[in-house]
Structure formats: C-alpha cells, structure tokens
Amino acid sequence: MGSADSKLNFRKAVIQLTTKTQPVEATDDAFWDQFWADTATSVQDVFALVPAAEIRAVREESPSNLATLCYKAVEKLVQGAESGCHSEKERQVVLNCSRLLTRVLPYIFEDPDWRGFFWSTVPGAGRGGQGEEDDETARPLAESLLLAIADLLFCPDFTVQSHRRNNVDSAEDVRSLDSCEYIWEAGVGFAHSPQPNSIHDMNRMELLKLLLTCFSEAMYLPPSPESGSTNPWVQFFCSTENRHALPLFTSLLNTVCAYDPVGYGIPYNHLLFSDYREPLVEEAAQVLIVTLDHDSATSTTCTVDGTTTGTAMDDAEPPGPENLFVNYLSRIHREEDFQFILKGIARLLSNPLLQTYLPNSTKKIQFHQELLVLFWKLCDFNKKFLFFVLKSSDVLDILVPILYFLNDARADQSRVGLMHIGVFILLLLSGERNFGVRLNKPYSVRVPMDIPVFTGTHADLLIVVFHKIVTSGHQRLQPLFDCLLTIVVNVSPYLKSLSMVTANKLLHLLEAFSTTWFLFSASQNHHLVFFLLEVFNNIIQYQFDGNSNLVYAIIRKRGVFHQLANLPTDPPSIHKALQRRRKTPEPLSRAGSQEGASMEGSRPAAPAEPGTLKTSLVATPGIDKLTEKSQVSEDGTLRSLEPESQSSSAEGSPSEGILSWKSKLPLQTIMRLLQVLVPQVEKICIDKGLTDESEILRFLQHGTLVGLLPVPHPILIRKYQANSGTAVWFRTYMWGVIYLRNVDPPIWYDTDVKLFEIQRV
Question: Which of 12, 311, 475, 688 has the smallest C-beta neighbourhood within 10 Å, fewest atoms?
Fold first, then answer.
C-alpha cells in the first residue's frame, strides 16, 4: 500500500476515534488494527496526524476509547516481544504502536485523573490477553509496557544482530536469550564491537524515545524535594524485575562513550554519510541520565576498597541502592573502563571546540549538556572514578571544554542552566587537592576564546574565564559568584605561579567587590571580599616563591587593602555610599581591568536570539548549604569543621552587620607583606630611578618573607555536599534540557508540564 494511502487510512481511524461517542469494544480488531497493522507512518507522521486537541477530546469525551487504544497498543508490543518480531509486518506493528504511545502518553500524564491509569491492571488483559488469569496476577499496564520495551531492545534482527547463521526455523528463543551476549557496543564489561547497522540503530532509537516518554511523567509534577525521589517508571525499569537491566545499562553507557562524531578520523566525512548513530547516542544519553536520577543525599551507598577481577562491576562493594543503574554505575572499578569512559566523554565534550580549527570539518554534536550531567553523575556516585579522573592531567581534557562552554554562554540568558552545571562540576572537582595540583600544567592548546591573551597555566585560564563571567556575564549569573570564588579559594594553596594578566584580574575583582556601594548594597556581598582575601592569603603563605606577579600586583593596588581596613561603619557614610550607587548603572565596572586584545579567531559571547525558548530553573542552595568546610591537616588529611553560626551576615540595619564582619576581615598577612616590601620596592625605584617592572619583579622573585609573616593559617577546603536542594535543581535542569532538545518530533511541546515553566527570552 502506498504511504499516501496508509496515511489517509490512519487519519480516518483517528477521526473515527475522536467522533465515536460509544465505546468501541476491545475485541473489534478490524477497528483497532487500522492504527498499526497496515500503515507505514513515520513518527513525524503520527505527530502530524494525531493533533493534541483530538487526543484531549478523546480523553475528556470518550475516556474508555483512549484507555482501550493504550492497552491494545501495549498488548501489541507485548506480543511482539514474546514472538521475537520475525516478520517485517510484526516489526512494523511494533514501531507503529511505539510511535502512537510516544504521541499519547504526555496527554495521559498531564491530567491528574489519568495518572494512575497505567498503574492499574486492565481486567482480562493479563499475559497474552487471554483473560484466564485472575486479576491478582495481571501486571499493571506500565510494567507490561516497560518489560516489553526492554525485551524488544534485545530482539535479534530487529534491534540486535542475530547470532544464528542458518535458517529461520532455529530463530533464537527470545525468552531464553542471554542479552549480555548482545550488548550494543564494546566498552565497559564487553569486548566485542558489533557491525554497525543503521536499521537496528533507528529501531533502538524509536524504542528509547518511547522509554524516555514513559519516564517523563516526572515533568508533570511540580518541583519538590519529596516528589522527585522516586519516579515509579524509572524505579520499576531499573529494578530486578527487568532481566535486561545490566546489558541495557552497559549498552547505553558504551554507545555514548564509544561514539566518534568525527567519523573514522576523516575530515568532512559527515557530509558524505548520514550518521544514524548520533540520534541513537543522544537518545541513549538522555535515557541514561534519567535512569540515574537518584538523590545521592538520601541513599546510603558506601564504598569499600575491595576489587574483584574478571568482572566489570565491583562485587566486593556492599549492596547499593535499589536502582540497578545507579548500583552498576557506582561499582565500575577497572582502570581500563574508567579510561574508556573518561576518554569518550572528553572526546565528545571537545567536539564543539574542534569546529574552530577547520570549520564544518567534523559533525558538531549538540548533546554536551546531557554529557555534563552524565559526568556529574559518574563523579557523584562513583568516588573511584572521581579519583581516577584527578589522578592524571586527563582531567584537563574535561576542564578546558567546560571553561569554553562557560565563557561562550555567559551572555546568553537561555543557557543559565549550562553555566550552573559547569560551575557545579568544577566545584566538585575543586574539593580534591589533586585538581589544584593539575592546574599548574602549562596551557598551550589555543582554543579560540573571547578572553585576553595570556601565557601561563590552566589555573590562569580558569581565573581569566571566571573574571570574564563576573565582569561581562548577564545579571542572572550573580548567584554563581560565590561558587566561582569558592573554586578559586579551594585551588589557591596549590597554584605555583600566576601570570601577570591573571594577577591583575584577581585584583580587579577585589576592587570591584570592595567598593562601598557594592559591599553595602546586599547583606551577602562582603562574602566575595572574604573569599578573595583568602585566595591572596593562601598564595602568600603557601606559594610565595613562584608568585612574584601576584605580590607585585598587590603592592601596586595596595590602596584597595588600606581602604578595606578603613571602611566607614557609621550610618551617614553608608547612606552616602548607597546613594552613589544610583548613579552607577553597571554593577561591576570594567574600567581598570586593562582588557587587552581577545584571542585570535574568537567570537564575542553572544546573548540569546530574541524568542529563544528556555525552561525555568529552581533556585540553587546558598554556598553554605552547597559545601561543607574541612581543614587540611599537616599530613594532608581532611577534618570536617562544625558549621559556624551565620552571625557574620547579620541582617537588619547595615551598620550593625558591617561592624560584625569588618573586624573579621583577614587582612593581617597582606598588611604585614606591604609593611615589609613596600619600603624596599620604593627604595629600589628611588635609588635606580626605575619605571621598569622587570627589575622590581626580579627583586620580588628573590625576596623572602620567611619569619616575617604571621604563622600560616590552616588551609580550608569547602567541599561540595549533596543535598535535596541540588537534587531538585538537577532534576528540573535535566528535564528542561530534554524537553527543549526533543523538537523532532516535539514530544512534550504544548502539554501542561509542571516541573518548570517554558519562557521566551
């Protein structure tokens, strides 16, 4: 039958369904088969031929027909899974039912009265639909659907390569098939890479799309710490009820991490071949991060250092969370598996950066946000992976793309979520000493970025990008300033040598944050000054020798420190400072920051195009909730500190609060440094009539402050700690990304989602 005819028949069936006021019997196969039996409709056709208004009309006016449509479609999938889909016709039925359910499910979820429908048992629709079982043994529709999808994802000649060479009679029995032998891609726990097959890829993708749609019920519940902990669809799919949980987890992870968008290393290859892998990889990444949506703050996964050989999963671990996907992820432990995952994620994250060398030479992937969520989950659930990442300078292959994205998105309101996840990952990494040590590696890769040119290390790159975000990002990034500076504080004791460009940037930030109107205009603003002073103190006390550039910059800008020491605390002066603010439109002036030319080949960070869609995000917890303070002792071990009372941020009239924190400003070390070095530097200038910086820098390089500074303070690290606030933030961010990225077909578009709002820039 021609596709025009089949579309017409399908459309007729839809119209009949919406106009019939009488319930259609479930046994009326002639009617129901019109929806899937002899049609060849693409998923795009299904979306066009089944308009939203009509789905809602059936839901309101003939609910029993919608119910029958759903359970007949599920029944067809169950039959397909049981028979093994050997004929082309059976496969077509499975795909058609899958597309139809993908279309209809969001409209079931948006109506609270329907939400329980898939979790109820349909009388007479037990296994095989014979109606012989009593209702106790009948599974809820949702469970039958999920198990059928899982079976179909390992269906020989449909979604995986058949292992049988001979005729059809000995077709593999789906029930006895060991799906671990049919994992989709080599990688973790599987060495064999099957032949690429674009038809299998497309079939897998369609089934994963349906799976993702099943999981998306979460989008129709408002954000709250309670609502998110268990998504019943994910909970069942990732439980021991699903016999394919392990091979499917491995298939998804390996498919993502093995993907090479460059196409066998040949530039411009993607222009010659259509890539069926990419849509599958995107879908796999999205399904994977949703199955891993598990609140780590509430779970009790402990880690024990026992490793077993021969298996990819660490069996010596105590039993982890009920969610098997989280459990498997937390138990990966072999070095070669970590290497495979890290290299894969780094390769994909770096892909957009490659574009800048040979424009259009490689396919530009769009799923970097899903990859960042996946990387976050790996580090959060598997501490051995986190330590592996930090063990070598490979971590820099993750850092550079993140800094690239942060810098590129800083002016774009629609990418606030991307800014947050990038900063959260760096905050998590910065809690580990090794991260600070790794940053000392010289930065030679020249990715064109809209930042000043500098010669230095990865630490310089990080600080220069952070400075750019603070001084030329948009207003909605201000809540991130605490996080950005906390990261710099965490790494500062390990930074051996900052460039002059970076030293000037840090002092420019101090200047901007310590203006009286900025300090007095919000009760929390003084925290930023405290963080910067802590950075300077750490470097002076622990890395003085290599940091003559910073010491020189501090000497040049010594006025800022004197001004801080003499902050006015009387109400009239404070009032005057706040009045002055009204005249200053720009919150942080760029004056005095000596921008310098941007890197060659870079484009300025652009704001969002007007009309760009974005999803709202919940507020993130404050830095005191996001992190936990630890003190580094002599032998390098960490000791947790009691959270101190928040008296330093006293609300109320500004002068009461200012008096309490002004006395706590940690200025002693810097004042002592100035007291010792300024007269010496001035003497050199007078003696030699110097205007030349190099001579002074040479003097500072060989100078020493041993015995002249106060006793070094203990190093404080603020480590990220999981909490319910961030769990809710990640859930809304992740689903917002998935909502916006699925536009063809637009699965959730114009449905009544509750987890976030859809806004236009």
Answer: 475
Our CA dihedral for 541, 542, 543, 549, rounded to 10 degrees, sits at: -20
Q: Which amino acid is at 141?
A: L
Model confidence band, residue 306 (pLDDT cutoffs 50, 70, 90): very low
Comparing 155-169, 229-243, 556-570, 694-708, which segment has the lowest mean pLDDT?
155-169
Cα 245 from chain centre: 23
468, 410 contact by CB (below 8 A): yes
Structure tokens that stand for 198 in this block: 């674009």
Pair 636, 542: CB distance under 8 Å: no
Q: Which residue matches tokens 């902050």?
A: 567
Question: Tokens in use for 760?
Answer: 């236009």
CA angle 485, 487, 489 (to 5 degrees): 70
- Residue pointed to by tokens 């016999």: 243
- Is 532 strand, coil or helix? helix
Q: Which helix (H) or strand (E) holds 630?
A: strand 627-632
Distance, CA of 585 to CA of 384 (rounded, Å): 48
Distance of alpha carbon 520 from alpha carbon 662, whole angstroms: 12
What is the helix, strand, coil percentage profile of the chain, to 5? 55, 5, 40
What is the average pLDDT value for the chain, to the nearest integer?
A: 86
SS3 514: coil
Q: Give how far Cα 185 sits from Cα of 160, 165, 511, 630, Å.
A: 10, 20, 54, 42
How far is it, in rounded angstroms, from Cα 275 to Cα 271? 9
Rounded CA gap, 491 and 716, in Å? 10
Burial class for 751, CB neighbours closer than 10 Å (0-12, 13-18, 19+) = buried
Q: Is 622 helix (H, G, I), strand (E, B) or coil?
A: coil
Backbone angles phi, psi at 258, to 5 degrees: -90, -10
Phi, psi for 244 (deg, rounded to 5):
-100, 10
Over pLDDT 70: what percentage of the chain? 85
Please tell me the distance from the alpha carbon of residue 449 to that of residue 403, in angstroms, as a whole number.
10
Q: Cβ(666)–Cβ(564) under 8 Å? A: no
DSSP 260: -
Q: How far apart are CA 716 and CA 534, in angstroms?
A: 9
pTM of the model: 0.91
Determine the distance from the C-alpha atom of residue 131 to the mean position of all C-alpha atoms in its chain, rounded to a whole number: 46
> Region 641-666: what's the mean pLDDT?
65
pLDDT in tens, 174-183: 667 888 999 9
Question: 293 burial class (0-12, 13-18, 19+ CB within 10 angstroms)?
Answer: buried
Q: Does residue 190 contact residue 183 with C-beta atoms inside 8 Å?
A: yes
**Is the sign of the CA dihedral 475, 481, 482, 487 positive or negative?**
positive
Three-state SS for 173? coil
Q: Is the pLDDT of residue 369 over 50?
A: yes
Give SS3 for 154.
coil
Element (H, E) at 503: helix 500-513
